């Protein structure tokens, strides 16, 4: 099984569920705080691969929900610069296994990548399930 470096927002319900799925599939999960990590441009960019810039973002982040930032109108350089200043903008989780990187947690993609085959595929584990009043996944 794989050793997964898992960059999360501590306290996020979905990140907790995602880590449990990985561990249940036999993977070793090394959790790190995405918000306090010392990100550098090249290192952060590696997690996004060929994804469109709009798919790099956490749409629960207050700056996006409030309309301050429109991910559809940003270049790669602008997006990374904003994320380095405000890590809440980064789509979670970021995962690394060896020299392979991934952002987000699409269960079928993760299953194809490192294996979750023994685990039942469950509904959306990326969107924050909290109500607007709680917002624990998007800020702090």
Commentary on this structure:
The chain is of the alpha+beta class and 140 residues long. It has one domain: Glutaredoxin (3-Layer(aba) Sandwich). Helix content is 28%, strand content 14%. It is built from five helices and four strands; from the N terminus they run βαβαααββα. The protein has a four-stranded mixed beta sheet with strand order 2-1-3-4, covered by helices on one side. Strand 1, helix 1 (13-24) and strand 2 form a beta-alpha-beta unit. 33% of the residues are buried. The model is unreliable at 131-136 (pLDDT under 50).
Superfamily at the CATH H level?
Answer: Glutaredoxin
Strand order of the largest sheet: 2-1-3-4
Which ranges are low-confidence, i.e. pLDDT below 50, for 5 or more consecutive residues? 131-136
Percent of residues in beta strands: 5-15%
Give the CATH architecture.
Answer: 3-Layer(aba) Sandwich
pLDDT averaged residue by residue: 89
Question: What's the number of extended β-strand segments?
Answer: 4
The percent range for helix content is 25-40%
Termini Cα gap: 33 Å
From the 3D structure, determine the CATH topology. Answer: Glutaredoxin
Order of helices and strands: EHEHHHEEH
Q: How many discrete structural domains?
A: 1
Coarse structural class: alpha+beta
| CATH level-1 class | Alpha Beta
For this structure, the quaternary state is single chain
DSSP summary: helix tally: 5
The Cα radius of gyration reads 14 Å
Q: What would the principal axes of the Cα set say about the shape?
A: globular
Biggest sheet details: 4 strands, mixed
């Amino acid at each position: 099984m794989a050793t997964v470096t898992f960059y999360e927002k501590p306290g996020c319900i979905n990140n907790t569920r995602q880590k449990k799925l990985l561990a249940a599939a036999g993977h070793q999960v090394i959790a790190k705080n995405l918000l306090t990590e010392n990100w550098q441009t090249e290192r952060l960019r590696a997690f996004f691969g060929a994804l469109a810039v709009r798919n790099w973002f956490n749409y629960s982040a207050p700056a996006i929900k409030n309309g301050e930032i429109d991910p559809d109108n940003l270049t790669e350089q602008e997006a990374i610069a904003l994320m380095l200043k405000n890590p809440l903008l980064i789509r979670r989780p970021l995962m690394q296994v060896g020299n392979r990187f991934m952002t987000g947690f699409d269960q079928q993609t993760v299953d194809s990548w490192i294996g979750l085959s023994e685990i039942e595929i469950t509904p959306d584990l990326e969107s924050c399930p909290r109500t607007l009043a709680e917002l624990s996944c998007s800020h702090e």
